[in-house]
Amino acid sequence: LLKKFIHAISSVGDPIILLVDDVQWADLSSLELLRNLIQGATSPFTFIFTYRPIELSHPFLQMIEELEHTRITKTEIHLRNLGEKSVYDLVESTLNIDPKKARGMMPRTHKEMKLDNDERVEKCTSLKTLTHEICNITNGNPFFIKQQIIYWIG
What's the CA gap between 132 and 123, in Å, rounded? Predict the structure, then answer.
């Protein structure tokens, strides 16, 4: 029934995109549902799956490998952690600092931040040194950067 439904909506001609996030957490029955959706779809239907790095033996990767031998085309995009310049821009934006006025300086909210819990950050005297420490703490992961800033601002 599900295959018939997907076939019906995907054969109308309008493009359909289905985004499934965090596939690394999918159980076998969920992966089987995804397999049925993929097999029942006709053009133009695009599936986008996001997942964190997983082992090659993960059932999702095995399913995709099996489906590649049929009619699907797979494109992989590997995201890397942010570099220090991008982290600087993200911190500057998150703390709402005017880049023309405060380039390299600590934000006004510095005194309000919970920096006393981390001596390395407490010693930061500029936005550049804060960014450097954030890079060291988060390894450039955008989610962790935002979470670290939220923790400090409180």
Answer: 12
